[in-house]
User: What shape does this take?
Amino acid sequence: MSRFFSEKLSALVPYTPGEQPKDMRYIKLNTNESPFPPSEKAQKMAAEAAARLHLYPDPTCSALHKALADLYGLTPDEVLCTNGSDEILNFAFMAFCDQKSPAVFADITYGFYEVFADLNGVPYQKIPLCEDFTINIEDYCHNNASVFIANPNAPTGIALKRAEIERILQANPDHVVLVDEAYVDFGAESCVPLVRKYDNLLVTQTFSKSRSMAGARLGCGIASPALIADLNTVKYSTNPYNINGMTMAAGLGVLADEAYTQKNCATIIENRAYVTAELRALGFTVLESSTNFVFAAHSGMAGSEIYRRLRENGILVRHFDNPRITAYNRITIGNRADMETLVATLRKILEEQV
Ligand code: PMP
Assistant: This one.
């Protein structure tokens, strides 16, 4: 740390992204990317947009907002695109939380919530998940705080029903409830249909997972026009050109190719069922996942050891340095061949142990 670093940030512990090692070719199952390439329409439109990179992109993102609004039967003033959904999460902490308006989120959830709260000087309370890693709705109903909830949750993969989230929305009419739907397309119920019913609901989504665009950095928020206007105030006070022109074009391309997205999601769901069954047959505990990853532990081997042995065998998964989930690894669902290699490698590792 330099002697110039702001005192208010001196204790900040930044988010640790999943590793991207370059020492050899790995089967990468550690950052929940899609195994499928971006839609050809997205690639073509991004390439065409490259010729216009000498110009600033449209700060209002109007075409993309219109396309997203059309997809959900909403109007463009109910959506806002951002540089990955991480950016809209940060905007939400900036816009809706402060010293007087704290935040709550689960103890085991997306690690960036805590970082954004710290970055923005927001007090927060972490609510423990139940023993089986499910969420107790009542815990989120009486906090007098903004609620940040990933649905499905990460890294557990467990989803709440829309009606359960509705209960949280009803119990917190004077606070924003942010529902982070990064993984919703893999089998959970979206809260987007509730946006016109609850003026305190902000749904966030990403193009990084089901839409195969993690490298382009595109996310979005869906909420009442008033909440979107607040988020726009933050956007125009930080980075009005937050979405670059190629990403904007790629986003339009993939939204015009919904069949491709749906087909890929169906394949991931099939592969998830295969991996879940195979891992359970090997003696793993695998939580019921509604995402493009599974969270798995084995009573015969430490989570960190499984991580290490897989890495030696060219497979990267994500192990979290948190005592409550130290037995577990988060494993991204890839294509069928990679999943078969994963299962065979885990079988070999377990056999070698005895
Ligand atoms: N929310 C959750 C729960 C996530 O796991 C992620 C991905 N790391 C994000 C949000 C952010 O994704 P992105 O910024 O790529 O949209």
Notes: The pocket of 4'-deoxy-4'-aminopyridoxal-5'-phosphate is lined by residues 84-86, 110, 150, 154, 180, 182, 206, 208, 214, 219 (CB under 6 Å). Residues 19-36+259-353 form a domain with the Aspartate Aminotransferase, domain 1 fold (CATH 3.90.1150.10). The chain has a mean pLDDT of 97. The CA atoms of residues 202 and 282 lie 40 Å apart.
